[in-house]
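Methods — Computational structure assignment.
A single polypeptide chain was analysed. Its primary sequence is given first, followed by the predicted tertiary structure written as structure tokens.
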Amino acid sequence: MENTIKKVALNDKHIELGGKMVPFAGYNMPVRYTSDKQEHNTVRNGVGVFDVSHMGEFMVTGPHALELIQKVTSNDAAKLVIGQAQYSCFPNDKGGIVDDLIVYKMAEEKYLLVVNASNIEKDWNWVNQHNEMEAELEDISDEMSLFAVQGPKAAAALQKITPVNLNDIKFYHFAVGELAGVQDVIISGTGYTGAGGFEIYVKNEDAEKVWDAIFEAGAEFDIQPIGLGARDTLRLEMGYCLYGNDIDDTTSPLEAGLGWITKFTKDFINSDNLKKQKEEGVGKKLVGFKFKDKGIPRAHYPIVNESGAQIGEVTSGTMSPSMGIGIGLGYVDIAYAKPGTEIAVSVRNKNLSAVVEKLPLLKK
């Protein structure tokens, strides 16, 4: 294993912008530029840009492309039309999740899979291992940059630099067109913040030109670069899973509340066991919760019931910048999974009361 930390194409720019760089998923990444709270609020109320070029991209092409994707992913990719994207996961053969991903239908017999940075090698090996139908696979992760332009002002800023009508790109749809004078840019109506916006895929050689143009176009809206710290608080307010925290090789998609991306209209890896699990019911479930007491929940803190018995564990937690209270996600015994259920989180030997909430935790 190489211990060399990889750098995204705009590494030097982030340093120049005052980004505090940390190793994340094998890459040197900006965790913040100013403060997490300030950057979080910029995205919720205006527009901010994340460089998420560490994410992995695989092209799957040829007459067997769909067949392979149907086998290795839980969602039904046959339903996709060209220009549509789909959230999905790779189930493993033990009931857990290899990774979560987005599948883009670029053309007939041409798909793009976007995977988590920390799992690029694992996912690549997994997909190849199951490719007995011989679909054509290409790992283009090192050639691509990805910017998430997120927030209510994202469309207004980006529209200035593209002839593509951004109003026509619905949630989880995309267009390929010109942006900032660069051709063949993927402009995708996706993002992991719940604040609206787009994700922009460009070749590394065009990354700086596109980044600069986005910032110039967004200047009137006080556009800001945003780090990984705010990315985490934004996704947590929405109750979106983070691989390695809330889902992993041991968590079933059904336990994780991802039944909606687990389609038994087709056969896929471990589908029989997952179908059985759906019929029998799960014993634990991933829930979102809000603190009623002052405090901040953190990963691995025990979740307890009113008599103090452990009924689960926190997987992600933070102080919500939008609501000013402690929020989190965690697995609890199924008896405690219903919204409105009173639970407590053990923080430094003190049980702080909390309530299970329907997701998203931040209500519009």
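Note: Helices lie at 11-16, 36-45, 65-72, 120-129, 154-159, 204-217, 228-238, 271-280.
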